From TrEMBL, chain A:
Belongs to the NtaA/SnaA/DszA monooxygenase family. NCBIfam families: FMN_nitrolo. It comes from Streptomyces viridochromogenes. FMN binds at T100, Y154, S211. InterPro entries: Diverse_substr_monoxygenases, Luciferase-like_dom, Luciferase-like_sf, NTA_MOA. The lineage of its organism: Bacteria, Bacillati, Actinomycetota, Actinomycetes, Kitasatosporales. Keywords: Flavoprotein, FMN, Monooxygenase, Oxidoreductase. The keyword Flavoprotein applies. Residues 27-376 form the Luciferase-like domain. GO terms for molecular function: monooxygenase activity; oxidoreductase activity, acting on paired donors, with incorporation or reduction of molecular oxygen. Pfam families: Bac_luciferase (PF00296). This is F420-dependent methylene-tetrahydromethanopterin reductase.
From TrEMBL, chain B:
Pfam families: Bac_luciferase (PF00296). Residues 21-255 form the Luciferase-like domain. It comes from the Bacteria. The keyword Metal-binding does not apply. Gene3D superfamilies: Luciferase-like domain (3.20.20.30). The keyword Flavoprotein applies. The lineage of its organism: Bacteria, Bacillati, Actinomycetota, Actinomycetes, Kitasatosporales. This is FMNH2-utilizing oxygenase. Belongs to the NtaA/SnaA/DszA monooxygenase family. FMN binds at T77. InterPro entries: Diverse_substr_monoxygenases, Luciferase-like_dom, Luciferase-like_sf, NTA_MOA. Keywords: Flavoprotein, FMN, Monooxygenase, Oxidoreductase. PANTHER family: ALKANESULFONATE MONOOXYGENASE-RELATED (PTHR30011), C2H2 FINGER DOMAIN TRANSCRIPTION FACTOR (EUROFUNG)-RELATED (PTHR30011:SF16). GO terms for molecular function: monooxygenase activity; oxidoreductase activity, acting on paired donors, with incorporation or reduction of molecular oxygen.
Length: 436, 340
């Protein structure tokens, strides 16, 4: 296991294909297709040119709706992840290929088979980001339909993953198929798996939950955690907490990599970068998106309000069903109170308030500033690396690879060549022990 | 070309039974075979998939092949019995995107109790019900592929809208065993609808083929038997309100060119004879050993057919529908103009 070269803790880097939300700017003239294979190829090749650990695809199983209608303001539409990654395996050699796939709306035999196939077809570069879903809204597209109790989500995900690993272990390392049988509360299956043990043994497992159950699941079972804690303070708290849970499962701190999803804006100088960052936030919050952001907090139809005017005087509807297919705000009344206070204190309009309140980009500055900040973040145990989320398709990673990666390499905190061929080797993860 | 009817040729790439186990060499092997098929100008390659014997996921395997080929159609077998229709259609649509319009899918059902135990979700229903369900999966797939009209994406900066939501449609499909709300998460694929292939050899599959297939595969031991099967499929297609001119019937031939009397040349004679007699629209070669037989088929059989002007010497179009002479369908929601 090599987490350090020359004594310095090494940074792990991944590239997230721009998402279907307002982070991704589509009104920019440089914005390309979100669905053509050429966009995926460009981003993946750029990530590989930058010697990244892996390329990451999110998943959507139902188009978002707002007030009973399909949401139309953001980029929407994406391919099925595993199929795209198999195609990308043909145009890349070393880059890890990570698919987000829901454990609620799949079955272990089929998904384990598809992931093992990807691992074979990419010669050991597959990863699975395990997510769960509980909403009946998404369920309307699936046989199993309906609602899964929130508490049962991790129960199902944990048994799903354990079952997948039994399938991946069902062939002996020397290539003999052996029957499997699994019997648990969620799944009772048996037979023979069609896929020989794959190059990584098990594809790399990524997990993204932040609740206590999610952290425990990650500590027990995941290889990588995709977190949202991008500030140093929150990062260090999360890092210490999750790494602290590993020993209970007989795992070492290096066995689980913690990688926050982060955004970034570069400029020739820090001042340039901050100016660009402000411009991007204005692009991300169009007048229509400002009203929509407000409606998501208020849970009410606010289409009659002027985005350049003051915030509504009425309070949010805490029981609203206006928004479907995206994560609900936990305490809308408190958020509304905070936004009103901000608007009154600074004299901001609705749109200005939303821009001001929406998250700042995680890393903003000249390449030197950003490289220093990333290195500091990892050196101080706020993270093991980053999943970079560009705001433009497909060119949003180019500048980072051209200008920041060389500086990280100069600092001795990022590889100057791939030393292995599998994603596990890039991440410094141990080979899974075969449990025949 | 002297023939007025286009001859269509396809070949199966999956290893014959009892061959070596699949593994990391699958990618290189399948790419090499697909390139042989492409150099020979074949309409498409198929790749079988089975839960009963070793093998990688077929759709995954052909997705891996897509960027390393340019013209040949890619038709993996996809099972509909224990899988989710919504995932299946998204994967096939995505294969069409990554191949830039060369995808099809060969529908298969999983009738055995052993297959049912792998999934543990329900016992295997009778085979007739499975083919009826497969037909419903084909139907909902078409609806989901059509659920984004071609011009749904507008990127209208003035109004801040990325899509015109009037051109995105809930499909509200209610089948006997499943329902799907829609729309798809995948924008309408390049071919509009990827090509649907059904092996109509078994009578239980025949009505589903006549109703839903763009290409039906049949098996027959004489030209007369093949012609009768084709006529039966055409009649049934008409009964379902379809234009039989939009259904291609290909004869599946399992061939061991080592043992085939007269070799590749005799096979060319048979193909020319049966096709010339209008018994079938083309042939689907199932080689006993693809690594050995496909190259011989290309060098021996296809070359002779080309010399006689019976088979294309270059691809004229870029999509699988182009090769098959099938029109790109208009979205079934395009004329309704109804909101989602």
């Amino acid at each position: 296991m090599s987490t350090s070269e020359g004594g310095r803790k090494q940074i792990r880097l991944a590239a997230h294909f721009p998402g279907v939300n307002s982070t991704t700017v589509w009104a920019d003239p440089r914005s390309g297709s979100q669905i053509d294979f050429s966009s995926f190829e460009h981003l993946a090749r750029t990530a590989e040119r930058g010697l990244f650990d892996f390329f990451f695809l999110a998943e959507g199983l139902r188009l978002r709706e707002h007030a009973g209608r399909i949401h139309d303001l953001d980029v929407v539409g994406r391919p099925e992840s595993i199929t795209v990654l198999n195609a990308l395996a043909a145009v890349t050699d070393r880059l890890g290929l990570a698919a987000t796939v829901n454990a609620t709306f799949n079955e272990p035999y089929d998904l384990a088979r598809r992931l093992a196939s990807l691992d074979h077809l990419s010669a050991g570069r597959a990863a699975w980001n395990v997510v769960t879903s509980s909403d009946a809204f998404t369920g309307e597209n699936f046989r199993r339909g309906g609602y899964l109790d929130r508490a049962d989500r991790y129960t199902r995900a944990a048994e799903f993953l354990a079952t997948a690993r039994e399938l991946w272990d069902s062939w002996s390392p020397d290539g003999a198929p052996r029957p499997f049988a699994h019997s648990g509360p969620q799944f009772r299956i048996g037979g023979e798996f069609t896929v020989p043990r794959s190059p990584q043994g098990h594809p790399v497992v990524i997990q993204a939950g932040d609740s206590p159950e999610g952290r425990e699941f990650a500590a027990s079972s995941a290889d990588v955690v995709f977190t949202r804690h991008s500030t140093p303070e929150a990062g260090r708290e999360f890092y210490a907490d999750v790494k602290g849970r590993l020993a209970r499962y007989g795992r070492a701190p290096g066995d689980l990599k913690i990688m926050p999803g982060v955004t970034y804006v570069l400029g020739d100088t820090d001042a340039d970068a901050h100016e660009r960052a402000a411009g991007i936030r204005r692009q991300q919050v169009s007048p229509q998106n400002a009203i929509l952001a407000l409606e998501q907090i208020w849970g009410r139809d606010l289409s009659g309000y002027d985005p350049d005017g003051p915030l509504p005087a009425i309070d949010p509807d805490p029981d609203s069903a206006l928004v479907q297919g995206r994560v609900r705000v936990a305490d809308p009344v408190a958020v509304a109170r905070r936004w009103r206070a901000l608007s009154e204190a600074k004299g901001l309009s609705i749109r200005q308030t939303v821009i001001e309140s929406s998250g700042r980009q995680s890393f903003v500055g000249s390449p030197a500033t950003v490289a220093a900040a990333l290195a500091e973040h990892v050196a101080t145990d706020a993270a093991d690396g980053f999943i970079l989320v560009p705001h433009l398709t497909p060119g949003g990673l180019d500048e980072f690879v051209d200008r920041v990666v060389p500086l990280l390499q100069e600092r001795g905190v990022f590889r100057t060549d791939y030393s292995g061929t599998t994603l596990r080797s890039h991440l410094g993860l141990p080979e899974p022990v075969w449990k025949g | 070309m002297t023939s007025t009817r286009t001859l269509h040729l396809a070949a199966e790439l999956a290893p014959g039974s009892g061959r070596a186990d699949p593994g990391p060499e699958t990618a290189g092997r399948t790419v090499a075979l697909a390139r042989i098929a492409e150099a020979a100008g074949l309409d498409f390659v198929t790749h079988d998939d089975s839960y009963a014997r070793p093998g990688l996921d077929a759709l995954a395997t052909l997705a891996r092949v897509a960027p390393e080929t340019r013209s040949v159609g890619l038709v993996p077998t996809v099972h509909t019995t224990h899988t989710e229709p919504f995932h299946v259609q998204a994967a096939v649509a995505t294969l069409d995107w990554v191949s830039r319009g060369r995808a099809g899918w060969g529908i298969a059902v999983s009738p055995t109790g052993a297959e049912a135990r792998l999934f543990g979700r329900r016992p295997a229903p009778p085979v007739a019900e499975l083919w009826q369900e497969a037909g419903e999966v084909a139907e909902v797939s078409r609806k989901l592929w059509d659920s984004w009209e071609d011009d749904a994406e507008i990127r209208d900066v003035a109004t801040g809208r990325f899509v015109d939501r009037r051109k995105l449609h809930h499909v509200d499909f209610q089948g006997a065993t499943f329902s799907v709300k829609g729309p798809s998460i995948v924008p309408r694929p390049p071919q509009g609808n990827p090509v649907t292939v059904v092996d109509a050899t078994r009578p239980a599959a025949r009505d589903t083929a006549a109703h839903h297939a763009d290409v039906a595969l049949v098996r027959a031991s004489s030209a007369e038997e093949a012609a009768a099967l084709r006529a039966e499929l055409h009649r049934a297609a008409r009964a379902h309100g379809r234009d039989p001119g939009q259904l291609r019937v290909l004869l599946s031939l399992t061939v061991d060119l080592d043992a085939y009397e007269g070799g590749p040349g005799a096979l060319a004679e048979l193909i020319a004879g049966w096709h010339g007699g209008a018994a079938v629209d083309g042939f689907h070669l199932v080689p006993a050993v693809p690594e050995r037989d496909l190259e011989r088929f290309a060098a021996g059989t296809v070359t002779r057919l080309r010399e006689r002007g019976l088979f294309r010497t270059a691809y004229e179009g870029s999509t699988l529908r182009d090769h098959l002479g099938l029109a790109r369908p208009v979205s079934q929601y395009a004329t309704t103009g109804a909101g989602s």
